[in-house]
Amino acid sequence: MKYIKQFSIITFISLIGEALNHLIPLPVPASIYGVVILFCCLEFKIIPLAAVKETWLFLVSIMQILFIPATVGLIDTWDVFAPNWLAYTVIIILSTFMVMLISGKVTQGIIRLGQKKEAKKNA
Amino acid sequence: MREFLENSMFFGVFLTLLAYCIGLFVQKKLKHMLFNPLLIAIILTIVALLVLDIDYDTYYDGAKYLSYLLTPATVCLAIPLYEQFELLKKNYKAVLCGIASGILTCLVSVFLLALLFRLDHATYVTLLPKSITTAIGMGISEELGGYVSITIAAIILSGILGNIFAASFCKLFKITEPIAVGVAIGTSSHAIGTTKALEIGAVEGAMSSLSIVVAGLLTVIGAPIFANFIA
User: Fold this and answer.
1) Boundaries of every domain in chain A
2) How many CB pairs under 8 A join A and B?
């Protein structure tokens, strides 16, 4: 019964997300609207965390597997990928690591700056 | 035998789960980051389809029930975010600047490398949304006139790169603040990276989840502007 209730809540939020995706002409998918809706429901105490907890833990534990079917679809795009494969590969690898480096360093830099200011204030 | 497999309802899901179990087993035995269960599962599934001579559509007909759960699973990423909201409020400037700088880096790096490789407009815009979640990236690519199937491939490959290398990459470049690690993973490799961030820790997972949403929305705004730079 617990799982049925929890799954109902999560699929209902997904459904509202789908409806918003259908109504609003932006390339924002149902899942992103869903994240915002669920977050607001939790934050404004409309839904207690206990009402979705076990289903959340289950879905998170299997999430990696959910990406496999779409990824295996790479075999069908190979023909389009092949002529420019070198450019695609280099761009994907370089750009992914550059994004990781810059976003991580900027975040960390600003946090550390804040900590230093705080330390000075307290000193 | 082949005819049976092609009509089977459970073959696709079973093959996927089996491949992932083997992946988990191999990682447990060999304990090296390159033996990533997700990567092993993808390779094994592709090899199995090629060897058994089953085409992708047939496989996907069964395996689509796994993809079906992606939306509810993504919705649940709101929960780690909710649990870490106090920490986020305290550090919102750092987090937002980090994500914004990451997306700018993505757009600029794709633009410069596209110039270097003399890519045409369609190929260039195909890669612009490469570091955000598939559903948003597909929409952007389509709108800008890119090759949607390659955008999906690029997005997935970026995600897998993050999933495999993010932890050691952050260590190597001394990104040690859990918040910064989460932002780095989520901004560069969306939900596929986030599954790894959640394994590393609760704060990393929450910040990575948030980065998916913010990075996606920033790319919706930024990609159409950058698309004009190569005609």
Assistant:
1) 1-66, 67-123
2) 311
